[in-house]
Amino acid sequence: MSLIAELQRRKVFKVGATYLVVAWLAVQAASIAFPAFDAPAWALRVFILLTMLGFPIVMLLTWVIDLTPEGVKVDPDVSSNKGVYVGAALLMALALSWYFYGQPAFRKGESAPSVVPAAPPKPTHGADSHSIAVLPFVNMSDDKENEYFSE
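Above: the chain's sequence. Below: its structure in token form.
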């Protein structure tokens, strides 16, 4: 039996597609809800990491567990499928590397944001601190008699 046929028989494609759609919807909802509840910025990244780590786990469980009319059964042919386990481990490693690569402490050439706010920049020109800049307005009306308002 080919790999594609075996994946279809075990419903791996259906479960994977369903997981991706539901996870995408959950991340979209979380990206709206987390800031609304003043969650820290790292909370959304951890939520996305957990959904990414859940994907290979769900795929592995779909491959191993078979749902029958008699109930849940472990497929006996799974013990020799080390490639599936390696694939799941690689997907988990990719999820972890995405998470840590996105952290400011691990980015190349960037420093972590400082806790102490920086001082406001000093003005570079010699203008008085009590001066006002007056700019002319544009007369956007069709009435030319109101031109004096813009001068």
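Helices lie at 3-9, 12-36, 41-64, 82-102, 147-150.
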